[in-house]
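User: what does the whole thing look like in 3D?
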Amino acid sequence: MDSLNQHPAIIAGRLLLGWMVPLAFLPLMIWFERKMSAFMQDRTGPNRAAILGMRLGGVIHTLADVLKLLSKEDVVPTQVHPLYYRLGPFVAIFVAQLLFVIVPLTDTLRLGQDEIAMQGLQLDIGILWPLAVGALMVYSIVLAGWASNNKFGTLGGLRAAAQMVSYEVALGLSIMGAVMIYGTLDLNTIVREQGQLLWGFLPRWGIVMQPLGFLLFLVAAFAETNRTPFDLPERDSEIVAGYHTEYSAVRFAFFFMAEYIHIVVASGLVVTLFLGGWQVPWLDTAALRAQAKPVLAVMLGGLVLAGIVIVPAALRWSRTLRQHYTDARRHEGRVWVVLMGGAATIGAAGLALLPGLALPEWAPVAVAALAQISAFIAKVLLVALTFIWVRWTLPSFRYDQLMRLGWKQLMPLALVNITVTGFWLLLFGKGS
Amino acid sequence: MAVDPALLARLNVKPEELRVVRAQTSFLQSLYILEVVRGLAVTLRHLLRNLVRQSAMPTSQFPEVQRVLPEGFRGRHRLTVKDDGTPRCVACMMCPTACPADCIHIEAAESPDPSVEKVPVRFEIDLMRCIFCGFCVEACPKDAIRMDTGRFFDLAGTHREDFVLTMDRLLND
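Assistant: Here's the predicted 3D structure for the full assembly of 605 residues, as structure tokens:
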């Protein structure tokens, strides 16, 4: 391709982006998990830890957790295999981190003559990368379970091996329909294809073209993240904590982080393949760049709207806080009023200045990228919330039910999906 | 099928009349996916309701917001006083005698008032032992001990001694 995209600094930056984005999602995911589960069960969830009275609705608890896990004693039980025991969590986090780099965050940026991909790894095999590398995940769990030299650990590891290998089949087959329709394995191209319209008004998203494929992929992705209803490797009521029974402190934190990164990665893949990736509905990259000013105005308007909604709510909240608390926490409401009021003011000022402003040459590209990455993150969050939502709703499967679902239901359905898609493409072509 | 014959006889059912009836699932239920969606709707309803109306949540934010206990709730004890401010207790030892947990310790002394025989110089309730049964209140002939402070959730301490209610604390509650 061109030179700038292959410049070592740019490549390093791209990889760093793909590495940092799931990490940035982490505290948010843990917060959502705790708060959503609490609200679903009519509890309030964490709301005590505070820094200077700022509780951020419980986000600070995540920070406290991190501090706790980092400062705990690093216990290596005497019966474990010293090397493999240490290797397990490392492989888990390493593999999880490797996955996200393939997901495109926005369309390719254009700087003058050069183009920069907003994707950690540009591979022609695209979608095969997370399937191939994700399969390594099972090694970390089996390593950890076996090296723990503990019944529960070993059982967890074995269960994980059976489960992940089984569902990888369904995972791989369920995306083939989408790959056939879009005719490529490259994720950025797949997302670009999804920008077109079906019958003139419906975006050609994977969920529209491949509803069955979407469902199958979602279920298989749930299974790959080892969460309820597919939590056999770590089911508390049966095998304590499964493969990470013997782990504590930072090593446990690594498994914990790997699980959440896995959710983000799975959500990223679901979004990229089936929910239009970075596509803003009905506005493709060219349209976004051509309409940079209105798009910017809409974003600033959103900021103003958020201020208008949040400031009165924060004022009301502040009154309650000042009634109940005597310490620094009573000021949190006012901090939010100032912050959101400031953001709304900036948005309003931007809106007022915008018509008379001459945008620099790079602005359309930047605005389009900003809009696309916002759309992408919003979609990923939505899917990740679905992961949490499902986890706190469904009871988990029995082992035989799990295997039956994987081999006798998901896999045949995926094959049917491929066949039907193939016949459809043969009879009607790609045009429809 | 192994069923207790005595049970069958009591229910007046002959063994050959027994049938195994499995729970009926309709076709739609057996698809599982629709039931999943229904379950998700339940949790979503709870989530949204609690998100929109957080004040309606049953949790009370304890140390800042004190829950009002119902009238007649047997909370922490207190000692009542006469009009002149001295304890009503006459150290008759009825309450330690009635106490099933053996948590009340009284030391009596001569009363300066000729119409009263004894007064307590030490009156201690060990809350680590107390089971909040209220027998002491029932036993008291002088209405000197009551459990109507309405305080129950602040029974926490870092030392054993924190849980011993001395006469001072009992009188000033």
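In plain terms: Chain A touches chain B through 16 residues (CB under 8 Å). Chain A has a mean pLDDT of 84.
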